[in-house]
Protein 1
Amino acid sequence: MAGTLYTVFATVLADNPGPPERWERAVRLNAKARAGELSLGLAIGKEANQRASMEDRFGGLADAVLAREGLVVDQKSRDLLLSTIASAMDDASAKLTRNARFDYSPDVAALKYPAWESRSGAEPSGDPKAERIAVAELFDRWATYNADKKAAGTIKRYRGSIQSLVQFAKDRDVRLLTADDLYAWAEHRRDAEGVSPQSINKNDLVAASAVLGWAASRQGVSGR
């Protein structure tokens, strides 16, 4: 599953990766997360600090991946997923560092990430009367839940990104969206809507991760 994130970052941002220092810094931050140096220091013990740091750095991405696949995992499996996401982000950052220096040699690292056979391509329910949840409705639920938890500016910023996803996905059930769909949307944002790769990374993918991750949480499932 981490390979889907590698593809999104390493491919969508390849044409305009920005300065190489950005991605070198990302690798350093990834290393700090593994070492437990990004948490606020509230956790007790080295292992707890490492877990908190990994969650701070990669938890949103893990939530988005699990939400797209409709998966709920135990803590051990989540820890493993966070570790593989960290490795994938290292590989993506290394590639984008090369691209930023005009090195577009073959991407050997991509061979490490075979295509993921998504579970989310299946029908969300065998019941023909099952509720269909479109992206617009999911965002409205997320915004209502977070009205007193997130800054108004954050919700407004996310709404702009999600409105584009709504137009792209139309009335498809969010449980049928795959990583390929989000990748295609990111390309559409870049090529058809003229959004910079930096904005896609900083705003659009973060917004989608937050909303889809919430959908898979206890609060999102209950709608409260």
Protein 2
Amino acid sequence: MGDEKVKDEALQIMNVFEILPRLVVFDLDYTLWPFYCECRSKREMPTLYPQAKGILFALKDKGIDVAIASSLFKVLLGFLIVLKRKCHLQVSKMGVTSILVGNGVNLGAFRQGLTNFAQGSGSSVSSKRK
């Protein structure tokens, strides 16, 4: 599936929810790309998981801020989704919606993160669904 198709599907997923986060934070290693940064040469150009770019474009189109995190990241903000491979349990204890992605960010993980966020914020799936 190309970036534009992924972006369109991610936008459709977001349109189903009444409330969206103001910020989405992605871990880099094994979330946006399939490797640990420190294990690659500085000369190698990183490649993203297949659906990551389209999801990032969709978030931008919706006006949702995006940030990246490392394993040392400490969350001090509310109303965000953290799509992280590591430390998602510690982040969840801080009142932040967090999901563990097994094989990189994809539309399924994105939908699950938004669903968890909606449930945690007292919101539900919108009746806009057609």
